[in-house]
Amino acid sequence: MRKLIPNCLAFILLIISIPALAIDPQEREIEFNETPQALFDQLLVRTQFPLSFNNRQEFELIAKELKYTPDELQADLETLARLYMETVVRTPNKTENSRLLTQQLESIAVTPMQEAMILLLEARFRGIEDQQYKQSIILFKEALKKIASIRDEHSLTLQFVLHGGLSSLHAILKQDTQALYHYKSYREIAYQLRNDYFIAQSETAIGKYYTGKNQLAKALQHHSEAYRISNRLNYPVIQAHAQFQLSRAYRDLGQWDEALKNANEAAISFQELGHEALQSNAMTVIAMVYGNQKQWNKAIDYYLNAQQLDKKIIRLLAKD
Question: Which of 130, 163, 212, 304 could form a disulfide with 186 if both were Cys (CB 3.0 to 4.6 A apart)?
């Protein structure tokens, strides 16, 4: 036992002294979607944010002290800035810290990729804080132009994210032609990268678009493909999301048995993941299915259970 303690301490010190590893852009994006809170907590510790620097030279000295390369530290801080703007991430002073990080990153951005990321962050601010969706679209498109001629993995992954954002913004503004163009570009890049996670994401996004246009057969086709692909991945969040959207497609088509099966399984998955808002949504789908079948007692039970979850979420948000 006496030997065990020094050995454990040595192991911990070894881990702390290991330099940050090169970042795989696709794996990072998957982690961003699957475990945003865990990734946020990890990056907060690893980068020791907030940092104080006034120029590139000072930033590079800090990177060296933290056992980073400058590019890797910059990439981690970019991810941290994005995570501060995610609603699922729970931490104080989100807006202030994200704004500070964006300003700091802007002061050291030198490559087209880094400049494109600043534009992405600014676009997110406009959309989240002020609902300036048209201005957000302009900034997202400027970001795409910055990196359009770069065809490496990092650039294509960022282009994937940008097309995803643009498709959603155009859809919000009911600009169907532009929305569909970016949805298809989003999907095209996913297949170009041969990334099943990205493919499932893009198929789900297009399925939701067609649902909104009441093109239910097309929606079911894309949601079925997303669910099929997600089922061969070891990522529970994308699986639950794909199955939930599939349940909604079956509900809209009046295929009650398939809708119930998939909504129940999605609700269980969201419960296991601790995603109570999405669990509530899945239970609402179940309630609607029972309502359409005139099974009123079951419908009311599920509506009330969903309502209880919603009240719990409101109380938790109030505490924050």
Answer: 163
Query: C-alpha distances in angstroms, 201 versus 186, 228, 261?
Result: 9, 12, 21
Asked whether 67 and 17 are in contact (CB, 8 A), the reply is yes
Give how far the C-alpha of residue 270 lies from the chain's centroid of Cα atoms, to the nearest Å. 16
- Please report the pLDDT score of residue 320 as a whole number: 61
Spatial distance between the Cα atoms of 139 and 261, rounded to a whole number of angstroms: 42
Nearest to 35 by CA among 74, 78, 98, 86: 86
In degrees and rounded to multiples of 5, residue 197 shows phi and psi of: -60, -50
| Sign of the torsion angle spanned by Cα atoms 158, 87, 77, 95 | positive
Note every long-range contact of 235-240, with CB atoms under 8 Å and residues 24 or more positions apart, other chains counting.
Answer: 235/30, 235/34, 235/197, 236/34, 236/269, 236/272, 236/273, 237/33, 237/34, 237/35, 237/273, 237/275, 238/33, 238/34, 238/197, 238/200, 238/201, 239/269, 240/266, 240/269, 240/270, 240/273, 240/275, 240/278
**Confidence band, pLDDT 50/70/90 cuts, at residue 54:** confident
- pTM of the predicted protein model: 0.90
